[in-house]
Design brief:
Structural class of chain A: mainly beta
Oligomer: homodimer
Helix content of chain A: under 10%
Strand content of chain A: over 45%
Radius of gyration of chain A: 15 Å
Number of strands of chain A: 10
Low-confidence stretches of chain A: none
Order of helices and strands of chain A: EEEEEEEEEE
CATH class of chain A: Mainly Beta
Distance between the termini of chain A: 13 Å
Number of helices of chain A: 0
Chain lengths: ~160, ~160
């Protein structure tokens, strides 16, 4: 399948990535995790995205998220994410070479969700590795670094 | 893996389902599609959900959506969905036997998305088949039937 032209700026993300990361936040103990991310083109000019993490200490499942990355064709993109924690998010962002920066425009929470108010993420291909850092504003804390990881492509 | 107790009311949804459906709306021609839905437990008391559809006439990809179904333990549930069309949704609903009814509480759209304002869905296990009907309010039209399908479980 030929990649739709609008997806070419995001081609460097395609595939399945696996690696490890670390997390911290003022309200919780530091933690380390294994992560698997997939970016798939299913034929439309959008990437289907999923991410899963597992605790490094005992392998228990941690975060999960899924959604879509939709380039606008002018170097900007929209990202729509759903979380099992009762949160959905819309991000706007920019693609610059092999680097994507996105920030939440809207965060919607169910009545049982924790108070997440904003997120900012930076993804970049560094050598053959996909690295990202995520900043989070939640439970009354200001936007600040929350998780980061370094991933290797395990499948095209 | 034992199913978390909170997920037992949704156990009838687990697995991969495949089948066919039909769609209509005042603003578009009627259409027929093949659909695959998956409901997976990854260890937490929530179901990870994905759905894909393909046009029956030529197999081109149509809709895609992903997210999470999270039972509250009292017969109610929350559903968080992301769509490649620039829409994210939060639904509230109820589980009654082998029937789930959900309706949007919040619909958030990006600046490039179509005007979707509300959705209502009813899923039910009828014999060995998963059937659903979805009503949609969008592009100025009132909430009305949009798609329905009948699916068979192809994988546990």
């Amino acid at each position: 399948m030929d990649l739709p032209a609008a997806l070419q700026p995001l081609e460097f993300l395609l595939g399945t990535w696996r690696g490890t990361g670390e997390g911290s936040y003022p309200t919780i103990p530091d933690f380390a995790f294994t992560q698997e991310i997939t970016f798939v083109c299913y034929g439309k000019p959008v990437l289907a995205y999923t991410s899963r993490t597992w605790a490094s200490d005992d392998g228990r499942p941690l975060a999960h998220e899924s959604g879509y990355w939709r380039p606008a064709g002018d170097g900007t993109l929209e990202v729509m994410l759903a979380h099992p924690t009762g949160v959905v998010e819309v991000f706007y962002g920019e693609v610059t070479g092999q680097r994507v920066e996105i920030a939440t425009d809207a965060v919607v929470r169910t009545r049982t969700a924790k108070e997440v108010t904003a997120e900012h993420r930076l993804y970049g291909l560094v050598g053959a590795e996909l690295m990202y850092v995520e900043e989070l504003a939640a439970v009354g804390e200001a936007l600040q670094p929350h998780v980061s990881a370094r991933l290797q492509r395990v499948q095209e």
